[in-house]
Design a protein that fits this description.
Order of helices and strands: EEEEEEEEEEE
Helix content: under 10%
Number of helices: 0
Strand content: over 45%
Radius of gyration: 13 Å
Shape: globular
Length: about 120
């Protein structure tokens, strides 16, 4: 059974930084392309960043480009989301997700496995 467990969320002031981690178990991690999504109350779940199986291809949502970076360590079965210059509008529950597509995909319905989410709150 594939399990994804996020960590690293919390409360931070605007302009601050957080690093989210997502540990994957239950199947060979390098078989998965990974994505980070977020969902704020009343909003749909939105794609934030994705990374290919090898880590050679990454995509980042335009509104966070230059502030957020996705990376992965296949030896540690973990994907990361480095978030800098955080803004109050970044407040949401952040989810990591996995799929077996060869490259990055943005649609939530394309992902097979999801973590439980971690809350990120940015105060002004």
């Amino acid at each position: 059974q594939v399990q994804l467990v996020e960590s690293g969320g919390g409360l931070v002031q605007a302009g601050g930084s957080l690093r989210l981690s997502c540990a994957v178990s239950g199947r060979t991690f390098s078989l998965f392309a990974m994505g980070w999504f977020r969902q704020a109350p009343g909003n749909e779940r939105e794609f934030i960043a994705g990374i290919s199986r090898s880590g050679g291809v990454t995509e980042v949502k335009d509104s966070v480009k230059g502030r957020f970076t996705i990376s992965r360590d296949n030896a540690k079965n973990t994907v990361y989301l480095e978030m800098n210059s955080l803004k109050p509008e970044d407040t949401a529950v952040y989810y990591c997700a996995a799929n077996t597509f060869p490259l990055v995909v943005r649609g939530p319905s394309s992902y097979d496995y999801w973590g439980q989410g971690t809350q990120v709150t940015v105060s002004s």
